[in-house]
Amino acid sequence: MENPIIKGTRISVYDVLNWMANGMDKKEIIKDFPELSIEQINACLAYAGSREYKINIAS
What we know:
Elements: H1 13-21, H2 26-32, H3 38-58
C-alpha cells in the first residue's frame, strides 16, 4: 500500500489520519506541526474518503 507524503513536508497522509483517529483535532495538529495547513489536513481526509469509496466499489 502506498503511503503518500504531504507536498513540501515529510509528513504522511497516514500520520495525519492516525493523529485524528487518536483524538487530535485540526488545530492541535497545526500547533504541533505548523508546516501543515487546514487545507492539507482536509486533503488527507478527502484522500482517505476517496480510497474507501474505491475499495467499496471494487468489493
